[in-house]
Specification:
Largest sheet of chain A: none
Shape of chain A: elongated
CATH superfamily of the largest domain in chain A: Tetracycline Repressor, domain 2
Radius of gyration of chain A: 19 Å
Oligomer: homotetramer
Order of helices and strands of chain A: HHHHHHHHH
Distance between the termini of chain A: 66 Å
Largest interface: A-B, 34 and 34 residues
CATH topology of the largest domain in chain A: Tetracycline Repressor, domain 2
Chain lengths: ~190, ~190, ~190, ~190
DNA sequence: GATGAATGAGAGTTCATTCAT
DNA sequence: TATGAATGAACTCTCATTCAT
């Protein structure tokens, strides 16, 4: 039989990598980075421990890959054209997307918050997270500046804090969170 | 020399316990619960590992004690008379206290947030944290109800979220946070 | 295109085998048998891990092949006619060759010494090495016997030890080793 | 019961450390550094794996400790007064001691040779070994200089090589090695 | 012939906890 | 009360070898 082509190998790699990252993300969000062992991840992915190291250099490397992927996919949703300029329409769209992310990427957000507050884990991805954060802040400031704010930086910070707070609370207790009302209030306060 | 009285012994015990808790709190906030070993805590407290187990049943038990103590001391500051009723004056006072806590108990808050987002650690103190949270919500709701809000629960939730968000961001990045401006804004929005 | 003949296939096989052995020898000498992985050898040989097992049954088998080949090629140089008899002229020639080997087969000698001193690796090739050694000793003894030594065995042992010692030191520190002077001294002591 | 005194703890530590080092030395010499697992060492020492790490930071650290101890004890035997000057009497004494070491510290010498030839292990103790070697060379050179040698350095190197060669062969095959005759010959050649 | 994904046993190491003193 | 030696389970990671393609 002829050996697999390069393309076939790549496909296998991509699929398996995605599978491992998905399993790991769920476990990390569920139980916390330190409480999940490589063995757990391998078991959930239905592969051997050894194979995991064929795809990721270390457990830390795996976490980093998950974070980068998550931040990138969120980045894409919030600012698809990456131009850094935010009109009122785009702001409304951005808020919409943010709240979609809140429900669609809930698990990633859980991981994200848990990482932010764990110094020893945070260092692993601090560069990527800081970059993401700065990019978002720049966008918000430009928006408030265009709107005529007297202190765009403070407004951007406050807006970010409110989002963080809502997200944080929603994630910790999403059973009976009045998410729609809250969203409406935000739009009233910051867009209209 | 006269032997120490029972009271003196208890005092020594309490002091040592407090010392251990203080050391552990600092280390946990600095490096994360999982990255701090019992040996580290013992060393920082200048006692032996064995003695630590004389005061706390386990590392988890120690963490729980720290959390309970922290929540209680915050509770006391926010609502000294524990009557659950909040007047406008008390609300202003409460916000004042909250922001004092933010600066005075910064280390505890770091630990607090890191615990909230680590499910495996959270279970250790979930009862205490939920109790604290409910108590605070009841207080806020009663305040907004008295003030004539159409949806006191939503208002309480939003207020709580904003506080959480600000605290969260401040703790992660307190170097150049415009904390005073933000506080003023909050007072304008929710008290006046 | 005409299909390759059987002979051509065998040639390819032999070339590939030689390539793998050369790569492995260099790596083993450089980093030690245990510190070199099969992956390393495959990479250096620019083949896949799997293919290596097409040529050698195991990593140990590969090492054994390298040792046997090395010993044989040295044997050939020292005693091309394999007659076991050593005249004075042949002794002089043998010493010449030995010192040539020292510089030309330096890498193999490094591996050789490292194997001699690693019991767990030594067992893999002990037969071959012992055979080689005995053959050499027989040759040296016959030489000293012909020369009229009172204790040819002791002389042979001493001569062997001196060679070993010089080689050993030269290999460990060949930067500023006065190899030519030493060789002259040996010839004076044992041939003239 | 009163707790153990500091001195008692120190005694326990020293004894256990020595026990572990002894076990490890034997195993390393017997099977080679890489083929001996920490588990093996612990089992031979009749302790748990974990305890080993109470006494040594790592397997490498343990090896290093063994080497340093071995070199020091040999150093002490060869040159008790550490003055670096060697008279004829002292040279005779030194040779005597060397050959004693050969029989008494045989196991350490096996380890020593195996380390010298394993690059990846050698790096762990290269400093210590180089220091030891230089010290010995200086001593030998001073001896040959005083004796009126035309090339003290070459003589020292040759003498060292001969010793190495003899030791090396003796260690690899000590069953029927004519060690006494060889020693006599050395004394004749280099002292008388 | 040739590939590299996949395995599984075992490596070195850490650490909460216990216990003799 | 107080010590730190001692344990053992669990951890992350490695690697020779196999096998479907």
């Amino acid at each position: 039989m002829s050996p697999r082509t390069k393309k076939q190998f790549e496909e296998i790699r991509e699929n398996k990598k995605a599978l491992i990252m998905r399993s790991a993300l769920e476990l990390f969000a569920e139980s916390g980075y330190h409480s999940v062992s490589v063995k757990d991840i391998a078991k959930k992915s239905q592969i051997s421990k050894g194979l995991l190291y064929n795809y990721f250099e270390s457990k830390e490397d795996l976490l980093k890959a998950i974070i980068i992927q998550g931040l990138n996919s969120i980045s894409d949703l919030i600012d698809p054209d990456h131009d850094g300029v935010v009109t009122t329409g785009e702001m409304r769209f951005m808020i919409d997307e943010m709240f979609h992310i809140l429900t669609d990427h809930r698990i990633f957000l859980m991981l994200y918050f848990s990482i932010l507050t764990q110094p020893d884990v945070m260092v692993l991805a601090s560069r990527e997270i800081e970059d993401f954060f700065e990019q978002l802040m720049r966008k918000l400031q430009s928006y408030f500046r265009v709107r005529g704010s007297t202190d765009p930086r403070a407004d951007a910070i406050l807006f970010g804090a409110i989002l963080d707070g809502i997200f944080f609370n929603y994630i910790l207790n999403n059973r009976d969170y009045p998410i729609e009302q809250v969203k409406k209030r935000i739009v009233e306060l910051f867009v209209k």
